[in-house]
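Lesson 9: reading folded outputs for more than one chain in a single document. The general rule is that every protein is listed as its sequence immediately followed by its structure tokens, and records are never interleaved. Here is the first one.
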Amino acid sequence: MRTAEIAQRYLNYFKKQDHLVVPSASLISPNPTTLFTIAGMVPFIPYLMGEQTPPSHRMASNQKCVRTLDIEEVGKTTRHGTFFQMLGNFSFGDYFKEEAIHYAYDLLTSPREDGGFGFDPEKLWMTTYTDDDEARAMWRNEGVDPEHIQILGMEDNFWTTGGPGPGGPCSEIYVDRGPEYGKEGGPIADESRYIEIWDLVFENYMVDNVKSKTDLHIAGELKHKNIDTGAGLERLAYLLQGKNNIYETDEVYPVIEAAEKITGIKYGENKETDVRMRVVADHVRSALMIMSDGVRPSNAGRGYVLRRLIRRTIEAMRVLGVTDPVMPQLLPVSEQAMGPNYPELANTFHDVSEAAYGEEDAFRRTLTNGLEIFDMAVAKAKSTAEETKGETTPVVSGDAAFTLHDTYGFPIELTLEMAQEQGVKVDEAKFRELMNEQKSRARQDALKKRHNVDLSEYDDFKNKLQQPIEFLGYTEVSTRSRVLGIMLEGVGSVPAVSAPATVEVILDRTPFYAEAGGQLADQGEIISDDGAVLEVDDVQKPIKDLIVQQCRLIEGTLVVGAEATATIDVERRGAIARSHTATHIVHKALREELGPQATQRGSEDAPNRLRFDFQWSKAPTKELMSAVEARVNDRVRDNLHVSTEEMKFDDAIALGAMHLFGEKYGDVVRVVTIGDDGWSRELCGGTHVDFAGKIGQVNILSEASVGSGVRRVDALVGQSAYDFNAREHALVSQLSDTLNARPDELADRINTLLAKLKDSDRRLASMYEAQLASSVPELVEAAADSTAPVVVVSKNVGHFGSFDVLRKTVMDIRGRLGDDKPVIVALAGVNEDDKPMIAVATNEAARKAGVKAGDLVRGASKMLGGGGGGKPDFAQGGGADASKIDAALEALTQEAMRA
């Protein structure tokens, strides 16, 4: 039974039970604290929490999910995968425990010819919560052997959201794979033999003060009880297809087969290569699905996770012996395998594949650059070990491994593999320490955004609000407000605070816009009636619908309950509004000039400037970007009317409103329309000007890549654009005066000067090369007459121009002297940038005597205040202090003579 058929059987069954079957939500999580949709119930949380009204009280779905916390276990177990699918049926205040248990058992055990899965009832086991006698009785009523019903505690069989909200006991369904997979005794005894396939959660409690799985408070029973279930599609598939693990199912195994053909290695014959092939199959599929939902490789957030998946794939194939590009051979196979379940993949595969192949090309270039750093780290490790005369093992430092990871994108696994091939170890403990320090710094930076107040404090505060906070910033710049709460950094909620202090203030009504949708937050001031003065520096929503003003209390004492006047910085708001409206116009103009694929991937709207990221696989021409800028300013001069309207989400989409793919929207959305004819229409919660003419002008400063398949436009808006033009005009005037040319003659005049300069450089380089070449016969003759056991040819050649000339000269001298006796050629001088450089070559006789060019260069470069390295036959280096060239050559000569 193919995976797609399993999913369809599940959905068909629940459709017959009056469930509304809905498509999978995006893998991009609507929760700002989570990168991806990590569980099948995530899209339904607003319904489970009672925050939104569900379109039906019975729903079912096959939800795409991604988890990467245990990425290191992928390929090693039967059930760890980064991408997986969760079949789920949900009830919001409709049916409860009895029906949920019956539906699950009926679908699992009904014959296949009747639409069921045909599991042997004797193979099924259930776990239940300690106090849930009711569930155990219901399982027995379905015909389950009481010996197959086991009892577990809160840690295993009680579910919560991890915070305040609904919760309740759960019952998990397992399949016994047989004695060949482990010992008897049910799931309690062996979860390798007994595989969990379905979890039924009975949400009948409201819980709060959740500190852990077992440390929480049950506040009472829910008025409307919910059912939330999840059945792992991949697990069902490998059991129903008679496979040993999820990697051998029909949606995953084709990639393993493709890897077999590419590598020439047979799957199933070697444990280590099997693990790597499973990693490849898993990661290629995950990358495909993540990219199909709009994510592109980058160095942050979801993009970094995606980048890691692709690079781990390339690294695994490299270890399997493949050095050519692999994504073009593997990604299409995965798309074909996933197509029956997700036919929409074909619509985006062209863009997805271009971005994936581009990422692989970029990583392969990174590998080339990083390998030089790796070689130097290995050489240093071996050199250090040699100094101890073999008493220590060569170890690549943790700092070097971290640099390879952080700067060059080397997975630590890649560094470890390459080090093993070179016969050295890696200080992995130090690497992990540095990684943890980096993560700690990142966490600290993230916490600063919330002033180190724990999220649970915000949850608790929000739950006590009698009514939602009212945002009036669309129409008001100043409001009369009441202080509902004060959060003190490092302490939490306090009743009062005196100046000076850094605080977070929560008002019942506010004109301050909280940072969202790329628009920066308002700033301004809050003055309480009893004299407290606060400067508002930032505004955030640490949790949904809770607006928090981050302030500096500079005068007086602020108390909870105080009446106050809150006023935004009107000039800043206006400048940001101009940038935000300009962003919408830039987006529309890009789509007009480049095509509908140029969709938004991020933005920042700041005072008098904007940044706009969009999906595009290659650099647009300068002519195209000039056309975009011209179109933007044409629309600004047209003074298009800008209007806002709230409407139902479906109505907005029907009107053609653009929206960020993967973003979570409510039932009612705000639509910003530019032009009475609807020229631009987007879902947007930000602030805007009412007429495009108020923007003034937009200057696109730059367009560049910020990741595979993602481009970025930086632009100045309004006054900053005018100021930029004024500076450009002044610069043109200055150049005209300096070069004695009219502005329209400047380009030709500068090109002429550059051509003359280039010709002068070429003549100078020829002169240096001739001077260097003229010294070769003398150096060769002197070396040929030498009676020393080791001949060292060294010279400070002064200025040599291009390093390529120096390298060729060193190689020429070495070639002329032959291999009759050990010869070392070392030439040093100053390059075009007046930096000292050295090149060293050794002949075969010298290398047999133990002389290595790389070792000689490292010592000399160190004296020059720099570094270098290379191979035993040729190496190069450089530094910063040209006055030490003679001393460095003398030291090199002495070291070579000791060989």
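And here is the second record, again sequence then tokens.
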Amino acid sequence: MRETAGEVRILGPVEVCGPHGRAELTGARQRSIVAVLALRAGSPVAVDRLVDVLWGEDPPRTAVRSLHSHVARVRQALADCGLPGALVTKPGGYQLDASVDAETFGRTRDLGLWRGEPLAGTELFGWGRAEIDRLREQRIAALEAHWGERLDRPDAVEELERLVVGHPTRERLVGLLMRALHQDGRHADALEAFRRLRQRLADELGVDPGPELTALHTAILRRDPSLHSARPAQLPARAGHFTGRAAEFAALADLPPIVVVSGVAGVGKTTFAVEWARRVAGRFPDGQVFLDLQRLTPAQALTEMLHSLGVPADRVPADPTALYRTLLHGKKVLIVLDDVRRARDVLPLVPGDQGNLLLITSRDTLSALGTRHAVHTVNLDLLTDSEAHDLLTDILGEERVSAEPAATAELVVRCGRLPLALRIAAARLAIRPGRRISDLVRELTRNDPLDVLTVDGDDRTVRTVFASAHRTLSAQAAELFRVLGEHPGASFPADLADAMGPGLDELVASHLVSEVGNGRYALHDLIRLFARQSGDIGDGVERLLDRYLTIAHAAGEVLNPRHDLVARPHSDDLPFGSERVEVLAYLDAERDNMLHVIRLAAREELHRETWQLAYLLTSYFEARGNWAARVEQCEHAVRAARALGDRRAEAEMLRGQGIALQMTSRIAEAMVVQREALQLVREAGDLRGEARLHNNIANAHSELREFDRALESYRAAMDVHGTAGDEVGVALARRNLGYTYVRMGRPELAAEPLFAALDTFRAKENQRLEAATLMTLGGAFHQLADLEPALRYFGDALRISREITDHRFEADALSGLGITQLALGDPAVARDCLTDALVVCRTLGDGHREASTSRQLAEADLALGDLAAAREHLDAALAARTQAPDAFEQAQVHRTLAGLESRCGRWTEAARHLAQAVTLFTSCRRS
């Protein structure tokens, strides 16, 4: 149908309104033509049907000619009011193209479109009269539906009485009047309305009222409580400055019948629920109920619900559940239950059919509810940084927030992105417009945030909402909560919590502990602070550390049984098996916690736990690196051993500290602590410890390119290991001796000790040291320009390193493959290998290896002609050398930069870099 700007109105006196005003329709005949064409708007109406409806069964002979004449006048009237094309001629008839109020009413049931009797001012016959009756029926049905939803209105009785006068035998109307009278307390009048209808039906039609109305009459006689109906509108006001949650709202677009909104205390569950309920309230015309279940027992909640639905207190039955579901049957009511504690408290309040919606907020996930009903759960997370910033901006204003961007970001962090904390912080700032955001951040930093995050006159603080969740915990869960509050890391594994005692599931269900994925859990920063203030922890810290000692000891037995200074009983309660890969994967997930746990032990002055935990983690750091953290661990351990007066432990942790210092390129410091340790083990007569320290001191000399001293110390290590009967120790010293020959540029001397070491490691099934030896053999053959064996040895080393997931050796093997492929003339493959190596180095946090690999990558880039990439990698290598100084390696970087600048035609820069390289090479001491 072609759109027009006008409207034809037939729900009352017939009229046409166009852009230029109302059409001048003269006489009933013209109005009738417009009306019947409007009844079929958009479709042609045949001439003979028009004649029938306009003149009835006996039309005059001139009817058709007269019809054409009237149509012409109507068409002119329509054109005059701005609708020139609305009435069109069709084969055999006419068609009206216009918007019609009756069609709009059919879609919307908008009673405001009615202006009186339908098609008033027309004279119609036959099907025209039937259409009038149809429209009247539509209107009265719409009125019944309208008042059926509004029986609680003060004018309901008056309006229904007026309608019943016009339709005295319409049972639906009489029934509505009876209900309205009954709810108004006029029981006798309600019964009288039924009596009048029954008498009229008997007198006029000889029938009785139908069963539905008769049942209503009986219910009124019995004063049935189910007859009491109200249209509650109890939703609280929206919270100001609502921010975010778009994804959560989108997930509720289909209006699932039961929704549980859960999340940590203070995350905004009630705020979210009220906001969403307000948005969808129009889709629940029978009312919206809001109950706070924190202050009500389940029985009280059900009684309150019945009162909300219109049932007087004296009509609530002993078992109100059936009445509750009866009242909701066939209705559309939105029910919000706030702060539900347990699933069993909700079960009696679940509606019997799905036209209603039950919206629940709870700190608990209420998983038991899902075993009986289909539940859609919305787990509210903390706000994102952006959402938290938007919330502060909404409350404080753009100008104030933008004036202190860094302080605003820090405030978000201090509040942990928790909506309640952010709102309280913003409220404190809002009441003091002159206060800087940074001042509040400083107050939060210097004081207990739980004390700061309060507002005078409002008892809903961060501490009180946490306390309300804590009060519902069982004694076991509360004890576990306090212990986990002392855990110093960002997250912890499930097995740790389970080892501390039962209650993890309860804490997760209460959202005091959050699952963060991969079997790990965490406490929000403010919740952790609350946990530490929630009661006596007893021996919780000791038990926590003992669990870490158990894990570290079991892991060390798998990774490197040679670290056997600490003996502990065997445990069957372990989160991993006997496979190296499995153990390393577990410790990788715990890596960030290790230093924090050792700090905790040191802070609590638990000296034995401090040094033993650091010692038992030795084999992990050998495999994975992260040497900067290892330096601090060993420093704590050395102090703890000295506090205990344990000279052997002190020597071992000094040795570990020396290795870590050397791996972070602090070689001079490493040499000092290694010699201090050597003195201690000699005094104790510890041959194996002495041999290991000779080996480590030799390694330091080798890195300093003090090769004569390195060779001397390696030979001393081999002698003492041999005296101690330590075959693996002898082989390790031989391997390191071969490595030093390679660093000296004497690869022809390296083969004999390396192959001897390889035989021992294979015989002892020590894959890690086998891989290390294969890599050194690869380096030796690379220097000998025998590249195929070099490629094979590096490849075997890579394979073993990946099998045992030793990332440090994996990075070295990839680098070796890269430089060998480059020497073979395949820079593309070389760059791929070296790129992979760089990724592993960065994972390890090993600045020395990262710098060396970046330089090697630059050489591959140069071979490929990618000068920009080469410059980027060389700049990165120089930057990394600031944290991991090595004059020889730095000289190589400048030498490669000189080559790059030469290719770019920058001769002055090339000469400068070459001069720096010469200076650095000259400064490197050689034996």
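What the second record shows: The radius of gyration is 44 Å.
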